[in-house]
Specification:
This is 1-deoxy-D-xylulose-5-phosphate synthase. InterPro entries: P-loop_NTPase. Pfam families: AAA_33 (PF13671). It comes from Pseudoalteromonas amylolytica. This protein is of the alpha/beta class and 168 residues long. It has one domain: Rossmann fold, CATH 3.40.50. The protein is built from six helices and six strands. The chain has helices spanning 18-28, 36-43, 51-74, 88-101, 114-127, 137-144; strands spanning 7-11, 32-35, 79-84, 105-111, 158-162, 165-167.
Length: 168
């Protein structure tokens, strides 16, 4: 039987630390790290000015990203995707990607309070001034209204990190 790689992906509110955790997991699992922010900025460097623009361009790259990730997983290489899996629909996209090729997955849910996320977003604005336009409290609240906590009915291999403590 073929030994496919494992897909790691993330769920958590804006500012929860998904990108930071993705880098750590990639290193720990000898995985290829694929960042949505990197792909979007490389392909659409000036087009994304609003949240709706982000949704549009994110959806445009997904078919290519999906086939690319499936090819990597199919040769036995682990992949960490720093793409949001914050809604049932987004998580379904990730799990279908795995089911189609028989690959395992882990969804890492970073469960932080709004206050913790906003604090981390404020730090990020200082550390990464290019992101200041989108890293605001208003954007946080706009994006958070769409957030859906993972449920048992989604049949996910879920790793939950609550307040920095990991539970399976």
């Amino acid at each position: 039987m073929k030994n496919n790689g494992k897909l790691f992906f993330f769920c958590g509110k804006m500012g929860a630390g998904k990108s930071t955790k993705s880098k750590i997991l990639a290193a720990e699992n000898s995985a290829v790290l694929i960042s949505e922010d990197d792909w979007l900025s490389a392909h659409y460097p000036t087009q994304i000015k609003t949240f709706d623009d982000y949704i549009t361009y994110s959806n445009l790259i997904k078919p290519f990203v999906k086939s690319h990730v499936q090819r990597i997983l199919s040769v036995g290489v682990n992949v960490v995707m720093d793409f949001p899996a914050n809604t049932i629909k987004q998580r379904s996209w990730f799990t279908s990607l795995c089911l189609e090729i028989g690959s395992e997955h882990e969804l890492w849910y970073l469960d932080l309070t709004d206050e913790q996320c906003l604090s981390q977003i404020a730090k990020r604005r200082v550390e990464q001034p290019k992101r200041a336009q989108f890293d605001t409290e208003a954007v946080f609240h706009h994006v958070t209204q769409y957030f859906e906590v993972p449920t048992d009915s989604e049949n996910l291999n879920l790793i939950c990190v609550v307040q920095g403590r990991t539970t399976v």
